[in-house]
Amino acid sequence: MSIFSNKKDLNYHPKVLIIDVDEANAKLIAEILESENYRVQITLNGQKALVDAQQHQPDLIILDSMIPDHNGFNVAQTLKNTPKTKNVPIIITTNLDSYSTKQDFNNNADEVLIKPVNPIELLTRINTMFKLKVYRDQLEIRKDIEFNFTNEDGIEKTKSINNDTRNHFLLIEDNLTEKSLIFNMLNQEQFIVTLANTGEQAIALAHNKSFDLIIINTVLPDMDGLDIYKRIKRIDLYQHIPILFVSNINDYQLKLACLEYGADDFFINPINNKEFMAKINLLLKKKTYTDQLYNNYQAAINSAIKDGLTSLFKRSYFIRCLDHEIKRALRTMGYLSLMIIDIDNFKAINDHLGHLAGDAILYEFGKIILNNIRDIDQAARYGGEEFIILLPNTKKEKALLIAQRIQSALLEIPLPSNLPTILNKLTVSIGIAEFPCCAKSSSELLNKADLMLYQAKKTGKNKVCL
Question: What strands, in cross-sheet order, belong to the sheet with 213-217?
Answer without folding.
Answer: 192-196, 168-172, 213-217, 243-247, 265-268
